[in-house]
Amino acid sequence: MSKAPASWASVRCDRTPAWTALQQHFEDQGRGFDLRQAFAQDPERAAHFSQRAPHLLADLSKNLLSRQTETLLFELAEQCGILAHRDAMFAGQAINTTEQRQVMHFLLRQPRGTGAGQAWEQELEQVHHTLDAMLAFAEQVRADPEITTVVNIGIGGSDLGPHMATQALQAFKVPGKRFVFVSNVDGHELDAVLQGLDARHTLFLIASKTFTTAETMTNARSARRWFEAQLGEDAQALLPQRFAALTTNVQGAAEFGIRTTFGFWDWVGGRYSVMSAIGLPLAISIGAAHFRQFLAGAHAMDQHFLTQAPAHNLPLRLGLLDVWYRNFHGFASRNVAPYHSFLGRWAAYLQQLEMESNGKRVDRAGQVLPFETAPLVWGEPGTLGQHAFFQLLHQGSQTVPVEFVAVKKAAHGLAGHHSQLLANALAQAQALMLGRSDAGGHRHFPGNRPSSFLLLDKLDSASLGALIALQEHRVFVSGSVWGINSFDQWGVELGKVLARDIEPRLASGDLAGLDASTAALVQALRS
Ligand code: F6P
């Protein structure tokens, strides 16, 4: 990928020569590609499609692509200006064009003092200023025996990232404290959490980039009412120590009555915010040193994405593979299979990252695209999925690429468990690929079903940071090929507006202007 294209925004992917070449290549070799033959013909296949990246090993060899496929995909990336787009993001250009914002979540993990001459030099100073303050607060909470429960109230990016990461890194959790995440406006969730809590010993973190999100504000107000009711006349004195806000809207937090606020900036997208102040519950759980390792792992992956040649650039390879599967093979979903119980929220986290970023049918200029974009992302930790939906993955009528995540070293000492777990992960990937043809009918496994395998040395702060950055950048790559703005989310607006219209009707019974189905449901709810 030697030549820089004129501009990262100039060419639609399906109008490039590489796209046409990939279509022809798919007809010639892609459609009938057989993994078993590919391995038989190329003794170097496993090595060629495996690589190291910071904190992990990736084996992409069980995917339905040849060296030629990948060469053509790299040409597509070049012709679409993907690396120029990447460089524009890292240079601090406003690549979120529909909102005129920079996209600089990479800055959250950029080491201090490395901004000289960069457009974001000042922002980097602010990042470290806030990070120091937030980590000092985290250490203070960790050392405070009076606080035994930390309740994070937030939704979407203000919940999924910190929730996933706090659960993933629970092996490093501070003893004596419980971490709870309340997200849904469904009062059953908050009510169940508040039962049995002691307000005096509970710290509430109100996490919201905008500090206007309806669910979070409703939960935050209810938490404050509960706090005041439980503590009576002591509430006013204790409230400033027991409520903190994580937000870009410092004024909104102040108006709510919160005095301790950790800010961030509009150039951090909600689903890219786990390494900002939104990561505070994680920082309290694992401590400042681990949190800094978390950032360092992500930074290592940023550098990998920025500096590695395409042939060894893992986010680029994965993002292009996603395009190959979606637009040429026509695969509509990707299953994610983390073989580690602590990654129980991995699929939920990736769903927002991928589908809120790239679940769009128009390009940056708002023009409808004539090709498919983001796949559905779904999954469960292994081996649970094996006893649920793996049937479909092995013998169903559609092909679903699987992305395994496994961890070499366990954080427990129970004999036999980890080798059984790892053997299952390997066996599933193998079975998907090899299939079984010695039996017919119900017992036949067609095989040739693709998977990638990401292997971490251990699940620790640095490797999780790297894994997150890997996913962020692979989503960037596919979104960039498709020419969409991966950093806005207009598709979430309409439902919010309509909910605001419907809510008073549930009380008033006013059905005027409603469609017949919604009107009937409102009536049923009121009867
Ligand atoms: O669901 C839409 C969304 O805006 C997400 O992008 C975001 O992560 C979430 O709501 C929460 O937003 P906030 O952090 O502003 O409360």
Question: How are the SSEs ordered, and which strands pair?
Answer:
Blueprint: H1 17-30, H2 35-41, H3 45-48, E1 50-53, E2 56-59, H4 67-80, H5 82-90, H6 121-142, E3 149-153, H7 160-168, E4 178-182, H8 187-194, E5 202-207, H9 214-231, H10 235-242, E6 243-247, H11 250-256, E7 260-263, H12 280-307, H13 314-329, E8 333-338, H14 346-358, E9 376-379, H15 390-395, E10 402-409, H16 417-434, E11 451-458, H17 461-482, H18 493-508, H19 516-526
The structure holds 6-O-phosphono-beta-D-fructofuranose (F6P).
Structural class: alpha/beta
Strand content is 5-15%
Shape: globular
Mean pLDDT: 97
Strand order of the largest sheet: 1-2-11-10-8-9
Bound molecules: 6-O-phosphono-beta-D-fructofuranose
Question: TL;DR?
Answer:
With 527 residues, the chain is an alpha/beta fold.
Features:
527 residues, alpha/beta, Rossmann fold, 3 domains, five-stranded parallel beta sheet, 11 strands, 47% helix, globular, binds 6-O-phosphono-beta-D-fructofuranose
Q: Please, could you describe this protein's structure?
A:
The protein has 527 residues and is an alpha/beta fold. The chain folds into 3 domains: 6-93 and 309-487, Rossmann fold; 105-289, Rossmann fold, CATH 3.40.50.10490; 494-526. Helices cover 47% and strands 11% of the residues. The chain contains 19 helices and 11 strands. The protein has a 6-stranded mixed sheet with strand order 1-2-11-10-8-9, sandwiched between helices. β3, α7 (160-168) and β4 (178-182) form a beta-alpha-beta unit. The longest helix is centred in the middle third of the chain and has 28 residues, at 280-307. The chain starts with 16 loop residues before the first helix and ends with a helix. The model is unreliable at 1-6 (pLDDT under 50). It binds 6-O-phosphono-beta-D-fructofuranose. 6-O-phosphono-beta-D-fructofuranose (F6P) binds next to loops.
